[in-house]
Amino acid sequence: MKYFLLSICFLMIACSNLPPAIEDPPLYDISYSEAIRNIAHFKEAPVRWGGAVIDVENEQNYSVVQVLYYPLNSYGRPQLNKSNEGRFLIKSPEFLDPAVYTSNTEITIAGTLIGDVERSVGKKSLRLPMIAAKVIHLWPAYEYNNYYGYGGYGYGGFGYGYPYFGYYGYYPFYRGGYFGPYW
Predict the structure, then answer these.
(1) What CA–CA distance (Å, rounded) separates 47 from 149?
(2) Choices 3.40.630.10, 2.30.300.10, 2.40.50.140, 3.40.50.720: CATH for 18-138
(3) What would the pLDDT profile of 47-103 be if each residue is shown by its tens digit?
(4) Strands in 1-45 per DSSP E
(5) Residue 54 belongs to what H/E stretch?
(6) Judging by DSSP bridges, how do beta strands 124-138 and 86-92 pair with one another?
(7) Annotated domain spans of the chain
(8) What is the model's pTM?
(9) Is 114 in a helix, a strand, or coil?
């Protein structure tokens, strides 16, 4: 029994694949709207923000990623179904390949708010908050996998050729931020 419980604990630890800085928000999680109102007050504050990548610019010693801000869910993944609040910049000392950080890729970063920078978006000049990145996490795209065949209601369950209807009675079921046949 003791070994069974120990193996379950190791299995649960192994299933957590997010970096701790992304999974756990800072003690006081500063929202985007708070930072925009008074950027000088929150300078050098830890933040965990996310959104969709707009553009990547690589300089000689650093890279800057422009991100469209979206609120995060409890796992730290951007909620693209919510309304965006604006843009922010990520500054990283590493080379960030534009082929990997493509447009509309979901991203979450943990870092320090270092101030704001003036950027032009079209013909408009905006002051965008800049974050010195400590951890950057790119999220995989959701993929629909019709593992059980059709998605309608029917008889049976396991072993009869009919789908299992999951957590809420239909497929694909949604459980904790992920789609798919995970149980």
Answers:
(1) 43
(2) 2.40.50.140
(3) 999 999 999 999 999 999 999 999 998 888 999 989 988 999 999 999 999 999 999
(4) none
(5) strand 46-58
(6) parallel
(7) 18-138, 148-183
(8) 0.68
(9) strand
